Amino acid sequence: MPELPEVETTVAGLRSVLQGSVLTRVEPRRADLRFPIPVDLRQRMTGAKVTGLSRRAKYGLVETDRGDMMIFHLGMSGRWRIDPADIGAHDHLLVETDQGRLLSLNDPRRFGSLDLVRADAWTGYAPFMRMGPEPLGPDFTAATLAAALAGKATSIKAALLDQRIVAGLGNIYVCEALNMAGIAPTRAAGRIGGARLALLVDAIRDVLTAAIVAGGSTLRDYARPDGELGYFSKQWRVYGREGQVCPCGGTVRRRVDGGRSTFYCPTCQK
What we know:
This is Formamidopyrimidine-DNA glycosylase. This protein is an alpha+beta fold and 270 residues long. It has helices at 4-18, 41-45, 126-129, 142-149, 156-161, 171-181, 194-213, and strands at 23-28, 50-56, 59-64, 68-73, 79-82, 91-97, 102-106, 113-118, 253-257, 260-264. The strands form three sheets. The chain has a four-stranded antiparallel sheet.
């Protein structure tokens, strides 16, 4: 599914079209995605001016001059399309602007979500209440990560995927960051020293930043709002590269944990 870099790229694409625009048409084309779509979304968003777009973890935030904030999640297959040539059965939300632009939220599997909250209370949105710090923000440090992992016997990979530890990380970028930091994905999270955690924090920041610059990774149905495919997958060190050569010269292996594939190099990750 789209992870933090893909959502950041999506928000940037939407910002180029929506920032400062008035929404002349907001049309949900079904009653629900993964969860029910607010019944008053059309009424509250139509005629509103977009004053800001941002991201929290894997969620996109669209703020208006009416004090409302639309929160979207792309789920497994969701993406926004800008000025699509045609509208299909999987385009579940249509948005038109006073600049004559059309956007559609396309989600074939319908695992995404749309919600609406008051902008001055968005931090109290239920999914956000349980989240840890943003991995690219100032609150994510080796010290805060060490405190969050203290005493945990779970694997470091499982811990990093726990949104309560750090917000927004997913399978691809956790595999990549652990390889960059030379840490085995199976190592007990609470037994990793401070120096190695500092390397891990830097690796997480570096891999996410590089992925955002590259427009995200192309995986299954993901594409940027302009229709272009992200190309960070060309820079993957281990993810999806079972049997291939790791940058250290070792051989990438794959294991399955909790139904998810973990890619790692036993030569350099200890």
